Amino acid sequence: MWFASVHLPKPEEYLKNGVISSGVHVVLAHMFFLLGHNITKQNVNLVNDNPGIVTSTATILRLFDDLGSAKVSIISILFL
Fold first, then answer.
1. If you placed Cys at 9, which of 13, 25, 34, 77 could pair as Cys (CB 3.0 to 4.6 Å)?
2. Would you give the DSSP letter of residue 18?
3. DSSP H/E element including 26
4. Nearest CA to 37 among 27, 23, 26, 47?
5. CB 66 within 8 A of CB 18
6. CB-based contacts of 61: which residues, under 8 Å, 6+ apart?
7. Is this model's pTM higher than 0.70 or not?
8. Ramachandran area for residue 23 (φ above 0: left; ψ -120 to 50: alpha; else beta)
9. Percent above pLDDT 70 for the chain
10. CA distance 36 to 68
11. How far apart are CA 61 and CA 24, in angstroms?
């Protein structure tokens, strides 16, 4: 969407969108319950009340992915 509209997002806006769209939140919630934790109201509240852990993980993975993409882009620019 940003590319088509020629809108250059601020770093905070870009990272917020990247964290949400990464799907890490969904994967981590599923992993928590697939590791043997029963779905109880207490466990659901535990997952919901600790968004910092999930958001931090999603941020790290997003930045790691962007770093890999940036390296590929720089290499392709240099050798084309």
1. 13
2. H
3. helix 24-34
4. 47
5. yes
6. 22, 24
7. no
8. left
9. 80
10. 33
11. 8
Instruction: Please state, in angstroms and rounded to a whole number, the distance separating the CA atoms of residues 46 and 59.
Output: 20
Q: Determine contact, residues 15/62, Cβ cutoff 8 Å.
A: yes
Q: What is the pLDDT of residues 20-54, one digit of tens each?
A: 888 888 888 888 778 877 788 888 887 777 778 88
The number of angstroms, rounded, from the C-alpha of 71 to the middle of its chain's C-alpha atoms is 19
- C-alpha distances (whole Å) from 3 to each of 6, 15, 33, 49, 53 are 5, 15, 37, 35, 30
Query: How many residues does this entry show for the chain?
Result: 80
Three-state SS sequence of 28-70 = HHHHHHHCCCCCCHHHHHHHHCCHHHHHHHHHHHHHHHHHHHH
Tokens of 7: 């809108």
